[in-house]
Specification:
alpha/beta; Rossmann fold; 7-stranded parallel β-sheet; 3-stranded parallel β-sheet
Length: about 400
């Protein structure tokens, strides 16, 4: 079974979730499946090795990448692009390795290039349909391209892995995938969040001291896409001071996806620049320090239905403020304070309550731990194992 990791380490939650899925594959019995880990990015090899994953570099030529992009933008050119790219070049590489089944750990264009080999594919979200207003799913015909890819790869998949029941419902309803081929594989915290108190103390650094913050802060790890809605958090901090008298700061981590300058200008305009810090990319091992020293994770994203940071906050015993939106509210249940994304006042009120009530904080932390416990790796492994066992029975029917 080829296990394909396409995300780069700097891509944040997508990379972390792919690593989690790869680590799960390693626990499959070897008499059921022999995994061959492949990554498109040579720079991932050392990072994966640290997780005990020995991967090889799957080489895709520059010409093939260009042709794949052309095909992505103009799906009707699928046939000519395949011919120019050397026909079934990718499939030939995989077949030479003796591959029977391909498991794409993230949403992948490469599945379109498999004519004979069977594959498992992953759908993290369908936010281009849920929130089509945002430029990242609208510009450059991105909406149309995603629709073309999903309509092409999902119905042909041996199995489609989704993050939640809401995700399953959307895949079945929007793309005509049989419900029994759609399997829920809930997200789990990044492996780096599993750190003992002893290890935490051994590597300790003071976040406020490192970033020159005079007071407490809320934390938001997210790439700077418009849909991440950083500006709402800034407006909420301003309202927290105006309505409740608390001067709270913020630490943002994540790379620029085109919206960072706008967020910085907004912080200046609201008079918050002296207490807002931009940490950029934060290595895995440092993330627990940002979480545990914060007042709360505040994540006003529009995209879901699930995200990794709430789970990581639960693992680090940190309260969560999260959007009151369908799918997202189901992810956190009673383990988070739900914000109305139309009203930054709601964020301010929740933070004021949290800062005034140690009991509320303790209740949220306990509920977060309980929420994590409802989905174990054993459950996820059982789901994956059942998919592979079912495929193996079919595969035994031909030479």
């Amino acid at each position: 079974m080829a296990v394909v990791l396409e995300q780069e380490i700097h891509q944040g939650g997508g990379y972390q979730q792919s690593v989690n899925a790869a680590r799960l594959v390693m626990r499959l019995p070897r008499d059921l499946a022999e995994p061959v880990f492949l990554t498109l990015h040579e720079g991932n090899l050392a990072a994966l090795e640290r997780h005990g994953i020995r991967a090889s570099h799957l080489r895709v030529s520059a010409a093939a990448r260009v042709l794949a992009r052309i095909e992505h933008e103009w799906p009707n050119l699928h046939g000519p692009c395949r011919t120019l790219a050397g026909g079934a070049a990718l499939e030939a590489q995989l077949s030479r390795r003796g591959i029977d089944l391909v498991y794409f750990l993230s949403p992948s264009l490469l599945a379109r290039h498999l004519d004979t080999l069977n594959y498992i594919t992953t759908v993290w979200d369908l936010c281009h349909r849920d929130e089509p207003e945002f430029p990242e799913v609208r510009r450059g015909r991105e909406f149309e391209q995603r629709e073309s890819v999903y309509h092409s790869i999902l119905p042909r998949a041996t199995a489609v892995l989704v993050d939640s029941e809401a995700g399953r419902y959307n895949v079945v309803r929007r793309y005509g995938v049989d419900a029994w081929r759609t399997h829920v594989m809930p997200f789990s915290p990044a492996a780096a969040q599993d750190i003992s108190d002893e290890a935490y103390q051994a590597g300790f650094f003071d976040v406020k001291e490192r970033y020159g913050l005079a007071g407490d802060y809320v934390f938001y790890p997210a790439q700077f896409w418009p849909h991440k809605n950083h500006v709402y958090l800034l407006e909420g901090l301003q309202r927290l001071e105006q309505l409740h008298g608390h001067r709270l700061g913020a630490v943002f981590s994540g790379g620029d996806k085109g919206n960072l300058a706008f967020v910085k200008a907004k912080a200046e305009k609201l008079g918050l620049a002296d207490r807002v810090r931009f940490a950029g990319f934060v290595p895995d091992g440092q993330m627990p320090y940002f979480y545990r020293q914060s007042v709360a994770l505040v994540m006003p994203t529009y995209f879901g239905p699930t995200n990794l940071p709430p789970l990581e906050a639960f693992a680090n015993s940190v309260p969560v403020l999260y959007p009151d939106k369908p799918g997202l509210r189901e992810q956190v249940g009673d383990a988070a304070l739900l914000m109305d994304l139309r009203r930054p006042d709601s964020m301010a009120r929740h933070l004021a309550d949290l800062m005034a009530s140690p009991g509320l904080r303790a209740r949220l932390v306990a509920a977060g731990h309980a929420k994590l416990a409802r989905h174990s790796d054993e459950d996820r492994l059982a789901t994956l194992r059942a998919i592979v066992e079912d495929f193996r029975r079919r595969r035994a029917a031909w030479r």
